[in-house]
Amino acid sequence: MTIERPATTFRNDEVGMLRSFLDHYRATIRLQASGLTDEQLDQPLAPSDLTLGGMLAHLAFVEDYWFSYNLAAHEPAAPWDTAPWDDDPDWDWHSAAGRSHGELDGLLVAAIERSDECLDAMLTADPDLGRPVALPRPPGKGETASIRWVLVHMVEEYARHAGHADLIRQSIDGATDV
């Protein structure tokens, strides 16, 4: 499998700029997990229980949660719709244990594709990034996020985990130039 990491743009409109950073970090995470065995994807960096496999599953969940569920108001996709969240609030991370790289990367790639479709549909209907997402927050839970907030949050989410991925990958095989 070849993973292309697009460069971020230096000059672009707001949507193009945010999407270029999001796409760059999406590929960065996938590259950090590439070339490892399934067993290596399960290897944590002590004392944390974070793994690169868990990160792929977590980010697939985050993609679906913000773009499909909140932005477009779709019902949760599988496997999130039947996940035992009450038993394990970090099920997205822990559910990756023992799963293959192909399965986990495929889960993230499919979530990214759904996310991009939802975002494209929302921006085609109305390009205003300041408008709220389709799913309002419950009463008393604060303001409903804007489309801009979701994009900025997703860049932040990936950038944060890219740093974690750097440390985990280096602890596994010494790679520092991924």
Short structural description:
By secondary structure, the protein is mainly α. It contains 6 helices and no strands. Helix content is 56%, strand content 0%.
Question: Describe it for me?
Answer:
With 178 residues, this protein is mostly helical. The protein contains 6 helices and no strands. The protein has helices at residues 14-33, 38-41, 52-71, 91-94, 101-125, 147-173. Helix 1 (14-33) packs antiparallel against helix 3 (52-71). The longest helix has 27 residues, at 147-173. It is globular. The mean pLDDT is 95.
Describe the secondary-structure layout.
Elements: H1 14-33, H2 38-41, H3 52-71, H4 91-94, H5 101-125, H6 147-173
Largest sheet: none
- What percent of residues adopt helix (DSSP H or I)? 55-70%
What structural class do you assign from the helix and strand content? mainly alpha
- What number is the mean pLDDT? 95
Query: Proportion of β residues?
Result: under 5%
DSSP strand tally:
0
Taking pLDDT < 50 over at least 5 consecutive residues as the criterion, the unreliable ranges are: none
Determine the N-to-C terminus distance: 15 Å
